[in-house]
Design a protein that fits this description.
Helix content: 10-25%
Order of helices and strands: EEEEHEEEEEEHHEEHEEHEE
Strand content: 25-35%
CATH class: Alpha Beta
Number of helices: 5
Largest sheet: 7 strands, mixed
């Protein structure tokens, strides 16, 4: 069975972050940011990491600098991409400021990868038999199109992969219409009728089912119990628009 965990917090530099303990034994230092201890104001208060949501560019850059400091790399070595709810997976060495993708992959030592979310799933994939790891942005569109399968194809053996699924919107908080629910009707326990043509959708259950179907043992899937509902600790697009983005950040441990 997948393991559900509560994330603790720790102070790193100017930030409080939420470490991913399940991947430490595989040589990966990873954490989830929250919405606190940054410099953004208003709707984006305060650690907004998204540069595409209307926030002040200088504030976003300072927030990203603080995250780079927390993970122990120069600002230029904290990499992210322009996410488009698709299935493109990019090697970190291929990334520049215009790269459009929804998963980043590397085995390099001296850089950190970040994926940005505000209700969608932030997913970390770590290979226990190599130095390879990936961060993945998986909303309903990406899950429907196969972003998890596309990422796992870049690993030699899914049976050797360990996965962490970070804070996202809950089943209770995610009401969808029939056009969305139709993609996941065959996923056990993922779609719950909610009156009329509305349904509740469990993104974590969808992702877990897809991981197992691709060959990842379910005991190697760890899921955060924290949710984005309400947007109080983690940014939530459902709770407030416009809003900021938080991140799942990972690098090879020193």
């Amino acid at each position: 069975m997948p393991r559900d965990v509560t994330l603790a917090s720790e102070v790193r530099g100017a930030l409080s972050v939420h470490p991913v303990e399940s991947v430490r034994d595989f040589g990966v230092d990873a954490f989830v940011t929250d919405r606190f201890n940054g410099v953004s104001t208003g709707d984006y208060a305060s650690l907004n990491l998204g540069d595409h949501v209307g926030d002040d560019e200088a504030a976003v850059e300072e927030n990203r600098r603080r995250v780079a400091e927390a993970v122990g790399v120069p600002r230029a070595r904290l990499l992210t991409v322009r996410q488009v709810h698709g299935t493109t997976v990019k090697e970190a060495r291929e990334v520049d400021a215009t790269t459009r993708a929804d998963a980043l992959l590397t085995d390099e030592e001296d850089l950190a990868l970040a994926i940005l979310v505000a209700d969608c799933l932030p997913v970390l994939v770590v290979d226990a038999s190599s130095r390879r790891f990936a961060v993945v942005h998986a909303g309903w569109r990406g899950l429907a199109e196969g972003t998890i399968a596309s990422t796992l194809e870049r690993f030699d053996d899914p049976h050797r992969v360990h996965v962490f699924i970070g804070p996202s919107i809950s089943l209770e908080g995610y009401q969808v219409g029939p056009e969305v629910a139709a993609h996941f009707r065959d996923v056990p326990r993922a779609v719950l009728a909610d009156g009329g043509d509305r349904s509740r959708l469990d993104l974590r259950q969808v992702a877990t089912t897809q991981l197992v179907a691709a060959g990842v043992p379910d005991g190697q899937v760890v899921r955060s119990l924290e949710v984005t509902d309400g947007g109080e600790v983690f940014f939530s697009d459902r709770a407030q628009r416009p809003c900021g983005r938080f991140a799942l950040v990972a690098k090879r441990a020193s």
